[in-house]
Design brief:
The chain folds into two domains: about 15-40 and about 80-175, no CATH class; about 185-330, no CATH class. The protein has nine helices and six strands. It has helices at about 30-40, 70-75, 90-95, 155-160, 185-210, 215-230, 235-260, 270-295, 305-330; strands at about 80, 100-105, 125-135, 140-145, 145-150, 175. It has a six-stranded antiparallel sheet with strand order 1-6-2-3-4-5, with helices on both faces. The longest helix is centred in the C-terminal third of the chain and has 28 residues, at about 305-330. The relative contact order is 0.14.
Length: about 325
C-alpha cells in the first residue's frame, strides 16, 4: 500500500500558484495535479509540455488536462475510472485506505475553500482529490485548485450526497494509483519531458497545418461571441472569460514555465520562446479586460485588432520553440 509523504501545515502551494503568476489558477484539474505532484515531492514542471497543444474548439480554448499517459510515463502514476456502483462515500473510503487518490467531481457549494465565490452561494462542478478521510468524524482532507484543505460536518454530507450530483446521478470519479510511483532525477525527467514535448508539438503543428492557427480561428469566432455576451448580459462574460481567455493565457504561462525548466542545463535552447509565451500570458490578461468592456458596450468590436498582438507573439513563440527542439533533436537529446 502506498504511504503519502507528510504534508506540512500550513500547506505551501507550488510556486506556479504563487503571487507572481499572471494566472495563479488555471483550471481545477491541472491546478489539482500541480499540487498533488508537489505534495508527492515530484517535479510538477516536468509534466507541463502537453500545454503546447491547446486548441480553439469553436466555442472555447481547450479545457486542458494533464494526459494520463504523461503522468504514467513520467512518474509511474496510473489513472483509471472508478465505477460508482455502491455508495460514493464507501468507495472513496476504500480507495483512500489503499493509499490511492480518488479524484471526484464535486459541488463547490460544499467546499469551504471557495468561500466568497461558490461556497454556500452557487452550485458549480469542480474536481477534488481526496487524500485523507475519517468517516467517524465526517471529515476529509483534499486537494482543490491551488491548495490543500479540509472539510467536515454538513459539507461532508453534501459532498457525498447523491443529490449533490447532476439529477441525483453518481459523479465521475478517477482513481490515481500511486503504488507504482517512480522518482526520477531531473536529468532523466528532462529527457523524457523533451520527448513528450516533441510529441505534443507535432500534434499541434499537424493540426495548424490542416485547420489554421488556433488564434486565427478564435479571432474569427470572437465577434459572434461578443454579440452573444451583450445579448445575454449577467455573468456571461465571466463564463466566457474562463472558457476562452483564461485557458489560453494559463496554458501559455505553464508552457513558458516548462520551457524555462527544460533550459536548466548548460546550453539553453528556449530562452526566446519562454519570454514570448510568458508575454502571451500577460497579453491574455489585457484581452480579458478588453472583452469585459466590449461585453458592456454597444460599439463595433474589432476582433482582429484585439487579438493581433497575441497572434504575432504566438507565431514567434512557436517558431522559436521549434528551432530549440530542432537543436535538441540534432544533438540526439530527444531520441
Amino acid at each position: 500500500m502506498f504511504t503519502w509523504p507528510e504534508i506540512p501545515r500550513p500547506y505551501e502551494p507550488h510556486a506556479l500558484h504563487g503571487a507572481g503568476a499572471a494566472w495563479p489558477e488555471t483550471n481545477c484539474y491541472v491546478d489539482l495535479w500541480i499540487e498533488v505532484l508537489h505534495a508527492l515531492r515530484l517535479n510538477s514542471l516536468a509534466a507541463l509540455g502537453f500545454t503546447v497543444a491547446i486548441d480553439w474548439e469553436g466555442d472555447q480554448f481547450s479545457f486542458f488536462k494533464m494526459p494520463a499517459g504523461d503522468l504514467d510515463r513520467l512518474y509511474g502514476i496510473s489513472i483509471g475510472e472508478l465505477n460508482v456502483w455502491w455508495s460514493l462515500e464507501e468507495q472513496v473510503a476504500v480507495q483512500v485506505a489503499r493509499g490511492q487518490l480518488p479524484i471526484v467531481d464535486a459541488d463547490a457549494f460544499f467546499l469551504p475553500d471557495t468561500r466568497g465565490t461558490s461556497y454556500r452561494a452557487q452550485h458549480t462542478k469542480t474536481s477534488v482529490g481526496v487524500r485523507a478521510m475519517d468517516r467517524a468524524t465526517k471529515r476529509i482532507e483534499y486537494f482543490h485548485n491551488a491548495g490543500y484543505f479540509s472539510l467536515e460536518g454538513e459539507d461532508y454530507e453534501g459532498i457525498f450526497s447523491r443529490q449533490a450530483g447532476s439529477m441525483g446521478l453518481a459523479p465521475y470519479v478517477e482513481i490515481a494509483k500511486l503504488e507504482g510511483l517512480i522518482r526520477r532525477d531531473d536529468r532523466t525527467l528532462r529527457k523524457m519531458a523533451l520527448e513528450l514535448l516533441v510529441h505534443h508539438n507535432d500534434r499541434r503543428r499537424m493540426r495548424d497545418e490542416k485547420h489554421g492557427s488556433a488564434m486565427a480561428r478564435f479571432a474569427k469566432a470572437l465577434p459572434e461571441h461578443v454579440a452573444w455576451m451583450r445579448a445575454q448580459g449577467g455573468d456571461s462574460f465571466h463564463a466566457y472569460a474562463f472558457a476562452a481567455v483564461r485557458q489560453l493565457g494559463a496554458a501559455c504561462e505553464l508552457l513558458g514555465a516548462h520551457l524555462r525548466w527544460l533550459d536548466g542545463v548548460a546550453e539553453p535552447q528556449f530562452v526566446a520562446a519562454t519570454e514570448l509565451f510568458v508575454s502571451v500570458a500577460n497579453l491574455a490578461k489585457t484581452l480579458q479586460f478588453k472583452l469585459a468592456r466590449a461585453a458592456a458596450s454597444t460599439k463595433l468590436f474589432d476582433a482582429d485588432g484585439a487579438t493581433v498582438e497575441i497572434a504575432e507573439h504566438l507565431t514567434r513563440a512557436f517558431s522559436a520553440m521549434d528551432d530549440g527542439l530542432a537543436k535538441g533533436l540534432a544533438k540526439g537529446v530527444a531520441r
